[in-house]
Write a structure and sequence with these properties.
Elements: E1 2-5, H1 12-18, E2 22-23, H2 27-30, H3 39-49, H4 54-60, H5 70-76, H6 86-101, H7 112-132, E3 136-137, E4 141-144, E5 149-151, E6 155-157, E7 163-167, H8 172-179, H9 185-198, E8 202-208, E9 219-225, H10 228-253, H11 290-293
Parallel strand pairs: 2-5, 7-8
Antiparallel strand pairs: 1-4, 3-6, 4-5, 6-7, 8-9
Helix pairs in contact: 3-4, 6-10, 9-10
Length: about 300
Amino acid sequence: MTIEHKAPQGTPEWKQARAGCITASTFSLIRAMVGGLTEQQALYVEAIKKGATVAEAIVAASYKAKPKAASIDRALAGERVADFSDTAKALAFRLAIERISGVPLDEGYETWAMARGHELEPQARAKHEEITGDMVREVGFVTTDDGWFGASADGFRFANDNGCEYKCFISPEKLRAILLDGDITEVMDQCQGGMWLTGAKAWEFGLYCPALAPIGRDFTLIVIERDDDYIEAMERDLVAFRALVMDYEARLRAGGKPTAVPAPTPAIQAAPPPEAPPAQAAIVVNPADVPELTF
């Protein structure tokens, strides 16, 4: 179950709704783990989990003998091997404080890039509506009913209820990856996260770059289809991160002393995908074909 908070993005009420909430915009930061398995170790573990013998797994991973790393044993036992980065841990600690105080710790701090995005978002939405011939309903903030996870969707299309996400990147690296290489890794966690929270079947990502208006490439639309396998893997990481926030909150309340933390509740069940109405003028694009098909 999800709750839609009506307050427009950027307002004090919107910022209040986000306090202590793990938001989709931070999903990729959270999932940037450190200290995990090497590629060779991962191949060995994957082979064993698929039923291969030790000898077969050694060959599959190009080892000369059975590997002895403790991380492999933990992975085979189903334990978490990688750890959250220091940046993710800092985020978890901030969220723990916000859950205790009930107010945003950053007091609504907004970077120049965030302010620019809010300023250009209406223009991006208008471009999206022009391309699809469909209106986009503005959204404030969508959260799970327990308030643990949320997403500031930039809108939902009326025709198919697809979620919408607009980015106004100016970083040459980010622009090149999307415009020339069709690489949408930068927004994948956020968009799949929006689908996880709302049950939507697709998320329409619009890259708005006014500087490219002279050649008609100021707006690039990519429709990202729901990937349940991706969402399942992401959900595991996010539930583990929630447990970290719970640990920090419990330790703060206990005066900083180590304390038992309640076991994480069962993985959140995403809302079932809604029944889509008859297909209209949606632009569905394979990311690999972005340069040829999305402008």
